[in-house]
Amino acid sequence: MVLEGWAKRRSTAQGLAMRARIVLECAEGRSILAVAARLGVARNTVSRWRARFLARRLDGLSDEPRPGAPRSITDAQVEEVVVRTLEETPRGATHWSKRELAEQVGISPSSVQRIWKAFGLQPWRTEDFKISTDPLLIDKIRDVVGLYLAPPANAVVFSVDEKPQIQALERTAPVLPMLPGVPERRSHDYRRHGTIDLFAALNTATGQVIGKLSTRHRAVDFRDFLDVIDQHTDPALAVHVICDNLSAHKAPVIQRRLLAHPRFTLHFTPTYSSWINQVERWFAELQRRCLDRGVFCSIEELTTALETWITTWNTHARPFTWTATPDQIIDRICRYCSRISGPAH
């Protein structure tokens, strides 16, 4: 394999475009001084490229070969770096470091780094993934995303989920405030003062959130939260609730409530696909802006903080914009499955 672009080229698309403009300006009968002033270049530059074009036509606009040190890295070494990175691991380790690989191939660590960059290889990185095994994966994607992109008329769509066991954590030492050049500091250890569960329903059209705090998240607690949604929703509107496949969402007590309130319809996301539920994006904001750096000495303080956060959010609520179509999502899943189904996997 040859590393494309390994040898540096001095000429660029912008440089060739400038030379072409010089030639075109001269072809219109303008003097060298006039062309130089018009294009903002030196007079010698115009003279040189005009003369080279007259002598060699288009070939004259390219750079002449320039002297320099010969390449010290062969194509075989480049190929070895790429193949070892993709197909091998060092003894006793899970992935290569640039110094280990450089020693094996016989080149410098900086050369290994440049090869990795050129081929988009990052062996030090890893990401988690889970492919849904839901037999109704495609149907559920089309159902949920369809509600985001084209919500039904005379209806409201809520993205609903629970954030269980939010901990009231108190740091063992006071938090040190931020100073110029010094970030906020807090102790790594903490004391626990109990947990609480948060039910949240995100209105996908307005961004408004309906929240309910509970000590547990059983089926009856989810039923009670549906009652709260019912109380905060115009009775003339149908209610579509997007939720995950938690057993509490499918319990008999929920089925009985749906029969008693036919304007409610539950839509389930595919298994292992919480990313498709928009309320998860709101939970991420809650975690980042309120919980990660919060200090709560009691459940009461945590409860107050959560209620304040929801009230503040609703004051300046904004919806999350969903742009991916069902076909785009399904195509991306298919492409990824095809890539990881090759012989190397």
Automatic annotation (TrEMBL):
GO terms for molecular function: nucleic acid binding. Residues 176-302 form the Tc1-like transposase DDE domain. It comes from the Bacteria. Coiled coil: none annotated. It holds the Pfam family DDE_3. NCBIfam families: transpos_IS630. This is IS630 family transposase. It comes from Actinomadura harenae.
